[in-house]
Design brief:
This protein is mainly alpha-helical. The chain has helices at 11-38, 40-43, 50-81, 84-103, 108-111, 114-142, 150-154, 156-178, 181-188, 190-207, 214-222, 229-236, 238-247, 249-268, 274-302, 304-320, 322-326, 331-358, 365-382, 384-395, 397-416, 420-427. The radius of gyration is 20 Å and the shape is globular. It starts with 10 loop residues before the first helix and ends with a helix.
Length: 428
């Protein structure tokens, strides 16, 4: 049986396939994040006081980040053994089915404690799928990239994040406009989760029409596939894995502070309505989306590593000014806060995928890049909303900013400590 030649891959089809998949994946992920603030505390943790219910909801939110490295290992193994295309299809199905299942779950009022248990299981499934999705989408784009356009192509799957956020936030805003709070909590919240099924079908149709990437095809032709990609990454590339993980840490901390934590704190402590704050976040996400291609262009011209270092310094400085902007009491100031923070997020997010993919050789690239990215999710994002909420409650918003600045300092140190070959690739 011969493998389909990658010659038939259209650049537009490849980039669209990488973009549509991550858009769907992040749409699914973000509707959970939004629901974790607005819905789940009321429907799945009603026996707790409001503050504890939110923290418990955030705990289920964090569960996916611990599932993501498992997804990286599982899907990465097959991605480096079988191929990028088939693995990406499987990851998309895992994520999509888990999301639809959340929309069908009975609540605490119906089945008691089993409701949050089933919610946690579905959330774990979301994490498995996303753990395998991101790395494959980035490799699909970068391994088909023409010379000098690696960061530009690598940013297309990254654009799925702001597009997915805009879609998820938009549908929640639409639902709040057309139905009462009672209707929304009774059944309306289920619509975004069930609607993702249609998006998954579109993503599958696109991905089934592409061929294997040229880089992986060369690995197949040369017989260079490794037997156990995960073991090879851990034994032969530990420094690349460690520095890659912490190189992406600040990106995760910043994003989930600007989305999940900001939404929770803004609606519960600063007096903004759900609709008002979501609209302000959507303005900020536009800056997020605009900054991603700008950072990619800079990265291709001046080096991916330099682009990441400058963006990380911006994250550190933003952390110092976090509290004054967010807690000013002015909507204009909050919009500026969200736009600045999410814009800086775009500057880090644009080149990070390309940097991580270049840190590992082709035969273990799916596993290595996915694992580094998702371990960064554990350290940077899994507990970020929870930690930030406790810091803000116990010590004030300024300490949330210090937490962000500390994460940026660790990322900066990791970027400066990258292995030589990764530095050379990222500087090209």
């Amino acid at each position: 049986m011969t493998t389909a030649s990658p010659v038939g891959n259209s650049p537009r089809r490849v980039l669209f396939a990488s973009l549509i998949g991550t858009t769907i994946e992040f749409f699914d992920f973000y509707i959970y994040a939004t629901a974790a603030v607005l819905v789940f505390p009321h429907l799945f943790f009603p026996e707790s006081d409001p503050a504890s219910a939110v923290l418990q909801s955030f705990a289920t939110f964090s569960l996916a980040f611990f599932a993501r490295p498992i997804g990286s290992a599982l899907f990465g193994h097959f991605g480096d053994r079988v191929g990028r295309k088939a693995t990406l299809v499987a990851a998309l199905l895992t994520m999509g089915l888990s999301t639809v299942a959340i929309g069908l779950l009975p609540t605490y009022a119906s089945i008691g404690v089993m409701a949050p248990v089933l919610l946690a299981v579905c959330r774990f499934g979301q994490g498995l799928g996303l753990g395998g999705e991101w790395g494959g989408a980035v490799l699909l784009a970068t391994e088909n990239a023409p010379p000098g356009k690696r960061a530009w192509c690598g940013m297309f799957p990254q654009l799925g994040a702001p597009i997915g956020f805009l879609c998820s936030t938009g549908i929640f805003l639409l639902l709040t406009e057309v139905m009462s709070d009672e209707q929304f909590l009774a059944w309306g919240w289920r619509i975004p989760f069930l609607a993702s099924a249609a998006l998954v079908l579109v993503g599958l149709w696109v991905r089934l029409r592409i061929h294997e990437t040229p880089d992986f095809q060369k690995t197949l032709d040369k017989g260079e596939r490794v037997r156990l990609p995960m073991l090879t990454v851990l034994m032969q590339h530990p420094r690349a894995l460690l520095t890659g993980t912490f190189s992406a840490m600040a990106t995760f901390v910043l994003f989930y502070l600007m989305t999940v934590f900001a939404l929770s704190w803004g609606t519960s402590q600063l007096g903004y309505t759900r609709e008002h704050f979501l609209m302000m976040q959507m303005v900020g996400v536009l800056f997020f989306a605009a900054a991603i291609p700008l950072s990619a262009l800079f990265a291709d011209r001046h080096g991916r590593r330099l682009a990441m270092i400058l963006a990380t310094v911006a994250v550190l400085l933003f952390g110092i000014g976090f509290a004054p902007l967010f807690a000013s009491g002015s909507s204009v100031s909050v919009v500026l806060f969200l736009s600045l923070g999410l814009g800086i997020m775009g500057l880090t997010y644009g080149p990070v995928g390309t940097i991580l993919s270049e840190a590992f050789p082709t035969e273990v690239r799916y596993t290595g890049a996915s694992l580094a990215f998702n371990l960064a999710g554990i350290f940077g994002a899994s507990l970020a909303p929870y930690i930030a909420t406790r810091l803000a409650q116990d010590h004030g918003l300024a300490y949330v900013g210090y937490y962000l600045a500390a994460a940026a300092a660790l990322t900066l140190l990791a970027l400066l400590s990258m292995p030589r070959q990764a530095k050379q690739a990222a500087s090209a």
